[in-house]
Specification:
By secondary structure, the protein is an alpha/beta fold. It has one domain: Metal-dependent hydrolases (TIM Barrel, Alpha-Beta Barrel). Helix content is 36%, strand content 15%. The chain has a five-stranded parallel β-sheet with strand order 1-2-3-4-5, with helices on one face. It is globular and about 50 Å long.
Length: 210
């Protein structure tokens, strides 16, 4: 499991994902106990715009959620015609330049998606947009995605309360000039940007809209 230290943010995804496994388990149990309901508009084509895929991780108490799990959820009566995979920091390359290790996640997702042509028709990957080699990382992600890369998500979940303390870089990431230069590259490449942050960081995100 890679850490976001490689991406320039000094925290591991363990603190963010440790609870996710419990949520998945509890959600599955709750869903099993719910009464079935009729599907509304069963012929309406739907694109699932945000999902993850990952293998089981005992340390995080996280069960696997792979293509077969996703497809089972997709085939519950709705007409899911495509999905968009969102990066989650798994299956990074174990060696090579740090800025290129997230390409491993895209490579893995592409292989997983061959099990069902609807899965991961779009991919939102990770790149350190403020890194010195951001351009190289973006080019590698595009090449690995077989034309499916639609955007980049880079998280900066900082809050001064210290309830979930993050690095100094996370506090100021979205306002950093180097990050903004990387963000400009996304527009030139026709890619979107996903911000993952707390409300206290929204002013930085808003400044980019201006």
């Amino acid at each position: 499991m890679a850490t976001d230290t490689e991406a320039g943010i000094n925290f591991t995804r363990r603190t963010l994902l440790a609870g996710a496994g419990s949520l998945l388990v509890n959600r599955s149990a709750a869903a099993a106990a719910e009464p079935s309901e009729p599907i509304l508009l069963p012929d309406l084509p739907i694109i699932d715009p945000h999902h993850h895929l990952w293998e089981a991780n005992a340390a995080l108490k996280r069960p696997a959620y792979l293509v077969e799990d996703l497809v089972r959820d997709m085939d519950d009566g709705h007409r899911i015609v495509a999905t968009v995979f969102i990066e989650v920091g798994s299956h990074y390359r174990k060696d090579g330049p740090a800025e290129l290790r997230p390409v491993g996640e895209v490579e893995w997702v592409i292989e997983q998606s061959r099990r069902d042509k609807r899965v991961a028709r779009g991919i939102v990957g990770f790149a350190d947009l403020g890194g010195a080699n951001a351009a190289q990382a973006l080019e590698a992600l595009v090449a690995a995605s077989e034309g499916r890369l639609k955007g980049i998500r880079q998280s900066a979940p900082y809050d001064a309360s210290q309830l979930n303390p993050m690095s100094e870089r996370a506090r100021t990431l979205y306002g950093d000039p180097a990050f903004r230069a990387g963000l400009a590259r996304l527009g030139a490449m026709g890619l979107s940007f996903d911000a993952w942050c707390y409300h206290t960081t929204l002013p930085q995100v808003g400044s980019r809209q201006e």
